[in-house]
UniProtKB/TrEMBL annotation:
Pfam families hit by this protein: Autotransporter (PF03797)
Name used for this protein in its record: Autotransporter outer membrane beta-barrel domain-containing protein
Domain of life: Bacteria
GO cellular component, one term: outer membrane
Domain Autotransporter: 601-883
NCBIfam families linked to this entry: autotrans_barl, rpt_T5SS_PEPC
InterPro entries reported for this sequence: Autotransporte_beta (IPR005546), Autotransporte_beta_dom_sf (IPR036709), OM_autotransptr_brl_dom (IPR006315), Pectin_lyase_fold/virulence (IPR011050), T5SS_PEPC_rpt (IPR030895)
Length: 883
């Protein structure tokens, strides 16, 4: 038949219409309405039809690409554009293409929409864009030929009455893809993928398919049906049963967040001779991809060859469907957790990669692990075969895997056992026999304070133990533990005890070695020993530092150093009393006739004085002890008078509080210091002699935190100490005479002080890391050689000012490295060194004194000592007012 519709002129209504023309004279319905009887676009030649801009066409049966050799193309585009037909074949015997775009619609009211209808034909339908729709009583993709359906970008397809099929007849090939958010295919009845031919369905990128009836992939013998649901938001919802391979071959793959649900049963390989495969993630032999989800209460294997493949990348994929029948479960990659009662499954379970955790029941399935695959969980299996490379690790942390049958470990297999300090361990409990032909017990030791010398039951077999494991080794690199296996007729035991490697050998510094020796002296039952034994060498050396109690030794050094504040106060007062070089030119409170009055520091009356001070310092670590930082503040008051006309003798007292911190040892402390002393001195011409004797009581509080894998403790210490010191100084005054800045004078001096710190014993409050000390003494002698200078002058406004300075070299000898001897409860004493007192260092003072008015004076001094690794800076202040 020749074309009877080759322009925009519509044939007589009700006529049979043939479109056998394309460009330059295509048939276009652009906003108009047309009515036809039969409709062929490309009857025996090439035809093109376009319906656009709200145009409509009403016809009875329609074909696009009707006869052999013909080609038909129909495009329905734009909102309101519509082709209504009784039924439609896209590619009846020829090649047909139908595009429904941009809100266009095609409806068939009585019959199917068929793509690739007859053998040798091809039909392709695209439904693209929101509002674009294809509706038929049923949809057949690949009826007898090759059919393709693409639904994308929000397009929709609806089958309103009968079964939709992809790959209907033998020799047919059907491919359907539903892709993109909002794209969907809804079916009011059953749905077959590969009825007699080859069918393929892909739901991707948020597409959706819904089926009100049953689903079959691979319906008849010789057919093949494949469905893939992949991508987040991609959904296939089924209200009935799903058969994957009824008599033919079926494959269902759910991956990358796709989801399939079935209200009824899911059956794999229903009939004898069929093949049915469910892939979670990728297929067996393919690369693993992210898992999808199957929501179905039950999966049953039929009479054919069925398999479930878990080949995904998830680290905790839970599979909740109950599995029954005779088939195969393959764990290939990822971690799969079976939570349901699948005791009705009687097939084989193979674990060749990843981890399969049976938290439900596979009570009648023998599980074989090989090639790096791992079996775990707290449920029950029908048997265990661990081949070379296979790993059995009961529990999900620590747990028991029950076996309704026998257990066999081959050479090269691994039994992974986790143990903890509470005496719990993984275990296999078998009702049958355990045959051990080698294999290694790999022990994962959870952090904790272990009770060494105990044993764990790791395998029981009611039918008896045959053979032995090759040995046991720890997965953690701890050299302090020794593992051993023992056997009785029905049990395998794991014993954990101390090795012959000492904790002291983990030490890299003297303090670490000493602390390790103290820990080595403890009984095996000590929780501290059990915790240290878990560690590797690096962890152990760090733990020994925390346990050392180093802060107590370093605090001794700080208190010895801080003894200088009292003697400096006494020496400064003696210099001022004799108008010495570098003296603080501050008035004192003098008493005459019972009345106090502000008087010069050189007064010959009984005088009282006071001063405040503050200091902050840091003693750097020496590679053994860690850096300690200290701040201190306080005050001194004193009184003195003339004795034998030439001697000035007095007493001094005061209070200070110091805070110290050893950050690298998680330790800190404080000391309340109460000072008292006597001082005296005289002047023989230009030669000065100054001396004193003092005592300081220290009330010390410390806090430490100890934390390493498997152990934590908080320690507090409260104890007292006393510092006794005696000191003396000789200085010689040299006058330089007048200069532009006033009267300049110098004093070379030599100072000697002996300091003894006596620390009382104490016991820290806390747990197993608490230390006990018997106390001890630390004696240090300080010698200082230096030069003082001062000058005084009057400012233009009548204010008198004195400037002073000192520079010296200080040397310390004696117990310059403070040591504390401590012990753990029940252990032997060991000695820990603190940060050393600076053996050599520079000392300096700079000060200004101002007589602001006849009744008010202010003095400020900055001082410091600086040595190798030591910085200690001080600010002192004096203020006097007469009322």
């Amino acid at each position: 038949m020749t074309t009877n519709w080759s322009t925009g002129v519509v044939p007589t209504a009700g006529s049979a219409v043939v479109v056998n023309t394309t460009l330059p004279n295509p048939v276009i319905i652009n906003g108009g309405n047309a009515v036809a009887d039969g409709m062929s676009v490309g009857l025996n030649s090439t035809g093109m039809l376009t319906i656009s801009n709200g145009g409509t066409l009403m016809s009875n049966l329609a074909s696009v690409g009707n006869l052999v050799g013909s080609t038909g193309t129909a495009t329905i585009t734009g909102a309101g554009s519509l082709w209504n037909a009784q039924g439609m074949a896209v590619g009846y015997r020829g090649a047909g293409t139908l595009a429904i775009l941009n809100g266009g619609a095609v409806n068939t009211t009585d019959w199917e929409v068929s793509m690739g209808d007859q053998s040798g034909s091809s039909g392709s339908v695209t439904v693209d864009g929101a509002g674009s729709t294809l509706t038929g009583s049923d949809i057949v993709v690949g009826n007898g030929g090759t059919g393709t359906l693409m639904v994308s970008n929000g397009g929709t397809v609806s089958a309103t009455k009968w079964t939709s099929i992809i790959g209907h007849s033998a020799g047919s090939v059907g491919t359907a893809t539903i892709t993109g958010a909002g794209s969907r295919w809804s079916n009011a009845s059953d749905f077959y993928v590969g009825q007699n031919g080859i069918g393929s369905l892909t739901i991707a990128n948020g597409g959706a398919v819904s089926v009100a009836g049953n689903v079959v992939l691979g319906y008849q013998a010789g057919s093949s049906g494949t469905a893939t649901v992949t991508g987040a938001g991609s959904v296939w919802t089924n209200s009935g049963d799903v058969d994957v391979g009824r008599s033919g071959s079926g494959v269902l793959t759910i991956a990358n967040g796709g989801a399939v649900s079935a209200a009824g049963f899911v059956t794999l390989a229903t009939m004898a001779g069929s093949v049915g495969t469910l892939n979670i993630g990728g297929a067996a032999g393919a690369a693993a991809v992210a898992a999808g989800t199957l929501n179905a209460a039950t999966i049953q294997f039929g009479a054919g060859a069925g398999a479930i493949n878990f080949n995904h990348t998830s680290t905790s994929y839970a599979f909740a469907s109950a599995i029954s029948g005779l088939g195969t479960i393959n764990q290939v990659a990822g971690t799969t957790i079976l939570t349901a009662d699948s005791s009705g499954f009687t097939g084989a379970t193979n674990v060749s990669g990843g981890r399969l955790a049976v938290n439900g029941s596979l009570a009648n399935s023998i599980v074989t692990a090989s090639g790096g695959g791992m079996l775990g969980g707290n449920g029950i299996v029908g048997g265990i075969v661990a081949n070379a490379g296979g790993i059995i690790g009961p529990g999900n942390s620590i747990g028991t895997l029950n076996v309704n049958g026998n257990v066999a470990f081959a050479a090269g297999s691994t039994y992974q056992v986790e143990v903890n300090a509470a005496g719990q361990s993984d275990k296999i409990a078998a009702s049958g026999t355990a045959t051990l032909n080698g294999g290694t017990v790999s022990v994962l030791i959870a952090p904790g304070a272990f009770t060494l010398g105990g044993q764990y039951t790791i395998l029981t077999a009611a039918g008896g133990i045959n053979g032995a494991f090759a040995g046991a080794s720890a997965t953690t690199a701890t050299p302090f533990l020794a593992l051993g296996l023992t056997y009785d007729p029905n049990n395998v035991y794991l014993g954990i005890s101390r090795s012959n490697v000492t904790f002291a050998s983990a030490g890299l510094t003297p303090n670490q070695i000493a602390t390790g020796g103290g820990a080595d002296s403890l009984a095996l039952g000590s929780s501290l020993v059990g915790a240290l034994a878990y560690l590797d060498l690096t962890q152990a050396s760090g733990a020994l530092d925390q346990l050392s109690g180093e802060v107590h030794a370093s605090a001794k050094g700080v208190m010895v150093e801080d003894s200088r504040f009292l003697r400096e106060a006494a020496m400064d007062r003696l210099r001022a009393a004799f108008d010495g070089v570098g003296a603080v030119a501050m008035p004192v409170m003098a008493y005459a006739g019972g009345e106090p009055m502000l008087a010069p520091a050189t007064t010959d009356r009984f005088a009282a004085w006071g001063r405040g001070f503050g200091s902050w310092g840091q003693w750097n670590g020496d590679g053994n002890a860690a850096t300690i930082k200290r701040d201190i503040g306080g005050f001194f008051v004193g009184a003195d008078g003339l004795v034998a006309d030439t001697w000035r003798v007095g007493a001094v007292s005061g209070y200070s509080r110091s805070n110290f911190r050893v950050a690298d040892r998680n330790s800190s402390g404080s000391s309340d210091n109460y000072h008292a002393g006597l001082y005296g001195g005289t002047q023989w011409g230009d030669l000065a002699f100054r001396s004193g004797l003092a005592y300081t009581r220290h009330d010390i509080s410390t806090g430490r935190s100890v934390a390493f894998p498997g152990f934590a403790d908080t320690l507090k210490g409260d104890y007292s100490a006393g510092t006794t010191q005696t000191f003396g100084e000789l200085g010689y005054r040299i006058k330089a005479g007048q200069n532009p800045l006033g009267n300049l004078a110098f004093e070379p001096f030599a100072n000697l002080a002996y300091v003894n710190l006596s620390t009382n014993g104490f016991t820290e409050k806390g747990g197993a890391a608490a230390l006990t000390s018997q106390g001890g003494n630390t004696g240090v002698t300080f010698s200082t050689l230096g030069l003082r200078t001062s000058t005084g002058f009057t400012l233009g406004n009548g204010v008198n000012m004195a400037a002073r300075g000192m520079l010296g070299w200080r040397h310390a000898f004696g117990d310059t490295t403070p040591v504390s001897t401590v012990a753990f409860t029940g252990g032997s004493p060991f000695s820990i060194a603190g940060v050393p007192v600076a053996r050599d260092g520079a000392v300096a003072d700079l000060g200004l004194d101002l007589n602001l008015t006849p009744n008010a004076a202010l003095g400020l001094t900055y001082g410091g000592q600086f040595g190798s690794g030591v910085t200690d800076q001080t600010v002192r202040g004096n203020f006097a007012v007469r009322f």
